[in-house]
Amino acid sequence: MTERLVIIGNGMAPGRMLEHLLEQAPGRYAVTIFNAEPRVNYDRIMLSPVLSGEKAYEEIIIHGDGWYIANNITLYKGHKIVAIDRAAKTVTSDHGVTEAYDKLVIATGSVPFIIPVPGHNLPGVLTYRDLDDVQAMMLAAQSRAKAVVIGGGLLGLEAAAGLNAQGMDVTVLHVMPTLMERQLDPAAGYLLQRAVEQRGIKVITKANTQAITGNGKVEQVELADGTIIPATLVVMAVGIRPNAALAKEAGVAVNRGIVVDAGMRSNDPDIYALGECAEVNGMVYGLVAPLYEMARVAAHQLAGNEAAAFVHMDTPTKLKVTGIDLFSLGDFAEGEDRQEIVLRDAAAGVYKRLVLKDDRIIGTVLYGETADGAWFNDLKKKQTDISQMRDTLIFGQSYQGGAPLDPMAAVAALPDDAEICGCNGVCKGKITGAITAKGLTSLDDVRAHTKASASCGSCTGLVEKLMVLTLGDTYNPAAVQPMCSCTTLGHDEVRRLIIAKQLKTIPAVMQELEWKTSCGCAKCRPALNYYLVCDWPDDYADDYQSRFINERVHANIQKDGTYSVVPRMWGGVTNAAELRAIADVVDKFEIPMVKVTGGQRIDMLGIRKEDLPAVWADLGQAGFVSGHAYAKGLRTVKTCVGSDWCRFGTQDSTGLGIRIEKFMWGSWTPAKVKMAVSGCPRNCAEATCKDVGVICVDSGYEIHFAGAAGLDIKGTEVLGLVKTEDEALEHIVALTQMYREQGRYLERIYKWAKRIGIPEIKRQIMDDGAKRKAYYERFVFSQKFAQVDPWSERVSGKDKHEFRPMASVGFAQAAE
Amino acid sequence: MNWISIGTLSDIPRRGARCVATPQGKVAVFRTQDDQVYAIDDHCPHKGGPLSQGIVHGAAVTCPLHNWVISLETGKALGADEGAVRTIPVKVEDERLFLALEALASRAA
Fold first, then answer.
1. A-contacting residues in B 68-87 (Cβ below 8 Å)
2. Angle between helices A154-165 and A186-198 (to 10 degrees)
3. What's the pLDDT at A816?
4. Which DSSP category does A527 fall into?
5. What domains can be seen in chain B, in order of their start residue?
6. Helix axes A460-471, A491-500, angle to 10 degrees
7. Across the interface, do B13 and A801 touch by the CB < 8 Å criterion?
8. For residue A400, what pLDDT is reported?
9. pLDDT tens string A96-125
10. Label partner for B45 (CA 20 to 30 A): which of A82, A158, A218, A546?
């Protein structure tokens, strides 16, 4: 007798299952399908090309009406099943049709996840799941207005590209720092973002949607940081979850999805589940390859072959956006027993990464050139030992002895108008042009004719690379000490290239400058973070995970893991209220050690990390802010009492010190900066061994710099004499900015000055008024973003996770 | 093995760490750039520095006190330094993190 097979859902998985079943057991079942969508089975993967207008609905149909008739299958279109009666073995649709089954297959797929922000149910908010959604989006796109896509994963980016192709002005909001972070490492995520942006789609990462607002329909999206984005259409594409509600109501076992065994059978032996609603071995799936595998297994089972079993498989991810080539497969996490091979071609926008374990590929990320994806996938699947082809593996299958990697590629890829020498404003084209036109063969020639590298010299490495590119192997550049083992470039070259190529994130630097590791090391990351903070004060988002712990928690770590805290005492001046507040904090938190520092302030040592925010809150009540005693930044400005009190004082040294400190606090520098102002040449503030010092004299202010009193001891150099306090401030600020822009990370001012030369620094700061003014203004601009008290920020809740344990476990057991 | 819940993946910043307090001392739970999670004692084999406070790069952490680099997978010091710190089994299930309770207890014995 024919058995009755009822299928709930008519997506791709049950469609494929029926194809297998009709082949293996033709005529065994009388098949009835209930489809909540009012249509036949179509290829959901191709919805993106439909949205972008590259395909029509008719072209993506898998099974037309004729197929159902030919195979004698009853299809109820637009019937949603509302109840399963397992005792009676029937299902009932919302139109009242009841059908009995011997075997039931649940293939209800998934439902889009809706972020429950205010306004999520306004007209104009859509999801991206089925043809109805696509048609609604295409209708909305006719207005050529603004759209916001929430979600920068696979689906969100495809929706954004489609809406963009339909002529809408699209902004993608993504809550994570890089796009598609589940499939891509940050380097590939950076390239993807660049490609998406080049199409005219705006991307905002770390975007936390707070509300969708409008009068009766969508008008704008509001982010947690206050940003408002006008929009007439909002597409939520933040993820999907298995649609298992119906099965759960019927009492079928449901965890994340409908729980099935490897044979796709649920805890009710007559009910199977497959597709996105099914959970096998704790996993749910959303990509088509494993879903088709489920379909194959279910068909075998229904045909009586009980040996058929589903086995987990990794599936490559590809983005279906025309012109963006992207491939991701397997496990691409790092690990000690794993090795990676990275190939970056900045000029071509190519990034390839293979992760190997025991000479076998376990993961692959390809961007820009994905032709070898299938080959890598095959090597991975077959567990091929690649040790024989290791050196050439990354170049792909067709590689046969091609050219080795070119260390000059990043420089070669620079456009002719990229600025190489910042001091003298010389671009690449001028340098290569002069080398060719004038037949220059030495660095001195190039300096003489173009002025490039003739001032501070920090672009020397780049100029030499340009000479090699132009002259070939006849020119032998001096070796440059690389920043760390992640790159062949030196600090100066990296700094110049960050500016010339407008690199504004750490992943951007690593990609464009062809870093050899995927996420850098503890040497290069803090350096890059500083360079980016310094060069793009308004654009760059400080990467706290690339900062040393002291700068991350704004206190100094001690040998026992406790911290010390030094509040700012402007110019070393304090009063009874401040001292009382410090005394109270010391008592309240039982701080074991209080010490007067060499920088004229008070250090509290031995504070537990968990107590830091509370300590800062109390200090903040008394008006204290962070003294940045932990920072590669401005530390203290020591002063003497000056003309207010001292019988020898010539100027108000205390006042000038406080003024400098209030103007410059919060700024980040390559290494720490300590300053002092003395009111007369007796120099009680010890200004002549500081990074920057001022000696007040009757005729004005003598500015000193490049002193040292640590590992090295060195008296300062004299920068020059100025007449007024205003001038003194301007010169000191300009000098500091010059150092900020040219110094190598961790290089103190005296070492920088030795490298650049005292006369060159004097020329730029004392003699060149326009240059000085420009340095001064860049510092002032940067301070707009830097002068935020980090302690009060953290008292208000920033980086809460830093100060609390994640959990406490095992204490109850220990007490027993 | 008994697994004890300690929180979710999103509690830890990428390339960062959080501590779990236990009667035998702190355990540092790390999350790498690629969302791998590791747990080791928060105690550098060199001079006891809190490894949870270090900079995380790849599957390694650099101790904040004297820059020893410790493998998160094996707990061993990398490079020229010699020494090792205990690793504790940790698993991620559906974004939730679990530590192996036995491993915690065995340390007390």
1. 69, 71-74, 78
2. 10
3. 36
4. H
5. 3-108 (2.102.10.10)
6. 80
7. yes
8. 35
9. 999 999 999 999 999 888 888 999 989 889
10. A546
Which pLDDT tens digit goes with each residue over A775-788? 999 999 999 999 99
Taking alpha carbons only, the member of A566, A525, A490, A526 closest to residue A669 is A526
In the prediction, which pLDDT does A322 show?
A: 66
- Of how many residues is chain A composed? 816
Angle, helices A131-141/A154-165, rounded to nearest 10 degrees: 40
Nearest to A611 by CA among A802, A776, A398: A802
Q: Is some CB atom of chain A closer than 8 A to the CB atom of B26?
A: yes
Instruction: Find out whether A668 and A530 touch, Cβ atoms under 8 Å.
Output: yes
Q: What percent of chain B has pLDDT over 90?
A: 69
How many angstroms separate the first and last alpha carbons of chain B? 17
- ipTM for the whole complex: 0.87
Distance CA A430, CA A564 (A): 52
| Chain B environment of A544 (Cβ under 8 Å) | 13
Instruction: Note whether A776 and A737 are within 8 A (CB).
Output: yes
State residue A781's pLDDT score.
95
For residue A35, the cross-strand partners are A77
Confidence of residue A478 (pLDDT cuts 50, 70, 90): confident
For chain A, the first-to-last Cα distance in angstroms comes to 65
Tell me the two tokens of residue A769: 């008024």
Per-residue pLDDT at A815 = 39
Residue B109 has pLDDT above 60, yes or no: no
Residues in chain B with CB shorter than 8 Å from the CB of A810 are: 4, 22-24, 101, 104-105
Both tokens of A644, joined, read 């207010």
Tokens at residue A510, please?
């690593």
Q: Tell me the angle at which helices A460-471 and A428-438 cross, rounded to the nearest 10 degrees.
A: 50
Three-state SS across A62-106?
EECHHHHHHCCCEEEECCCEEEEECCCCEEEECCCCEEECCEEEE
Is the CB of B108 less than 8 angstroms away from the CB of A814? yes
Cβ separation of A813 and B105 shorter than 8 Å? yes
CB contacts, 8 Å: A282 with chain B: 93
- Interface contact flag, B33 A518, Cβ < 8 Å: yes
| CB-CB under 8 Å, A806 with B12 | yes
How sure is the predictor about A796, in pLDDT bands with cuts at 50, 70 and 90? Answer: confident
Residue B109 in contact with partner chain A when CB distance is under 8 A: no
Given this model, what pLDDT does residue A398 score?
64
Does A564 reach chain B within 8 Å, measured CB to CB? no
**Where do the DSSP E strands lie in A631-684?**
634-639, 673-678
Chain A partners within 8 Å of B53 (Cβ): 549, 553, 557, 561
Residue A223, beta-bridge partner list? A209
User: In DSSP terms, which residues pair with A722 in a beta bridge?
Assistant: A701
Tokens of A168: 């809408």
Range from A147-156, A591-600, A797-806 carrying the lowest mean pLDDT:
A797-806
Whether the per-residue pLDDT at A370 is higher than 80: the answer is: no
All domains of chain A in start order, with CATH: 3-110+242-302 (3.50.50.60), 125-238 (3.50.50.60), 325-395 (3.30.390.30), 409-546 (1.10.10.1100), 550-631 (3.90.480.10), 634-788 (3.30.413.10)
Backbone angles phi, psi at A643, to 5 degrees: -65, -15
Contact A809 B55 (CB under 8 A): no
